[in-house]
């Protein structure tokens, strides 16, 4: 079976004969090409969307003198908009939320303890330096580059989180940790846009880890 498509202009006539068998033979290659183009396009979109964000790389707890300590490594990738705001004098508050919970089969898991660590990241234009203020301990560290500041910020080492005497040895417990940019600490005119823009929705989400007795 054959199909004929004719196109005429003035007195010229051109014809093109397309067989069904030939169409079936090239159809798989055509579909594969379309699939490949779509895959590459979607991959590029995802790569562009994932250029910024916070994540937790590792997490562990240990006990020293009957006190639980936390070690953690984070990855902080700020969006272009956040970096521009920082370098124009807007301080950025990074929070680390820590919770200890015990499972309950009959209700939501019970929260035993909560702890929040706050780190204020500031840029000083005159000295072209970056400062991290630990809002819990009051310590301050200065860095000559944003990379160095974020490298320092990405590590928590032996942070006391809980006295073991507060736990029941017969129960199971687990740790939840997340880190995120605090939008509410931004200047008021910036907050409405920050709440709806993915460029400012910087959070690792919750990461769980069993707490050993």
Describe this structure in words.
This protein has helices at 20-49, 80-87, 146-153, 191-196; strands spanning 2-9, 12-19, 53-64, 67-77, 92-102, 110-124, 129-134, 140-143, 155-163, 173-181, 207-211. It has 213 residues and is an alpha+beta fold. It has a 6-stranded antiparallel β-sheet with strand order 8-7-6-5-10-11. The protein has a 3-stranded antiparallel β-sheet with strand order 3-4-9. The chain starts with a strand and ends with a strand. 15% of the residues are buried.
Per-chain topology:
Layout (H helix, E strand, L loop, with lengths): L1 E8 L2 E8 H30 L3 E12 L2 E11 L2 H8 L4 E11 L7 E15 L4 E6 L5 E4 L2 H8 L1 E9 L9 E9 L9 H6 L10 E5 L2
Antiparallel strand pairs: 1-2, 3-4, 4-9, 5-6, 5-10, 6-7, 7-8, 10-11
Total E-strand runs: 11
Note the gap between the termini. Answer: 78 Å
Helix-strand category? alpha+beta
Strand order of the largest sheet: 8-7-6-5-10-11
Q: Which term fits the overall shape?
A: globular
Q: How many individual helices? A: 4
Strand % is over 45%
Gyration radius over CA:
28 Å
What is the string of helix and strand elements? EEHEEHEEEEHEEHE
Low-confidence stretches: 1-50
Overall domain count: 2
The residue-averaged pLDDT reads 81
Task: Bin the helical content.
Answer: 10-25%
């Amino acid at each position: 079976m054959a199909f004929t498509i004719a196109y005429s202009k003035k007195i010229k006539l051109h014809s093109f004969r397309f067989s069904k068998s030939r169409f079936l033979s090239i159809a798989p290659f055509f579909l594969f090409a379309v699939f490949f183009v779509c895959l590459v396009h979607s991959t590029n979109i995802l790569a562009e969307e994932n250029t910024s964000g916070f994540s937790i790389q590792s997490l562990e707890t240990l006990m020293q003198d009957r006190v639980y300590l936390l070690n953690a490594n984070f990855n902080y990738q700020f969006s272009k908009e956040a970096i521009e705001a920082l370098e124009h004098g807007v301080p950025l508050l990074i929070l680390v939320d820590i919770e200890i919970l015990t499972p309950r089969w009959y209700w939501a898991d019970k929260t035993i303890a909560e702890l929040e660590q706050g780190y204020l990241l500031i840029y000083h234009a005159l000295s072209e330096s970056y400062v991290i203020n630990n809002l819990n301990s009051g310590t301050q560290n200065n860095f000559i580059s944003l990379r160095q500041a974020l490298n320092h910020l990405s590590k928590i080492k032996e942070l006391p989180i809980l006295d073991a005497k507060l736990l029941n040895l017969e129960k199971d417990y687990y740790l939840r940790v997340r880190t995120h940019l605090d939008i509410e600490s931004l200047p008021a005119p910036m907050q409405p846009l920050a709440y709806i823009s993915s460029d400012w929705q910087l959070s690792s989400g919750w990461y769980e880890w069993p707490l050993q007795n």
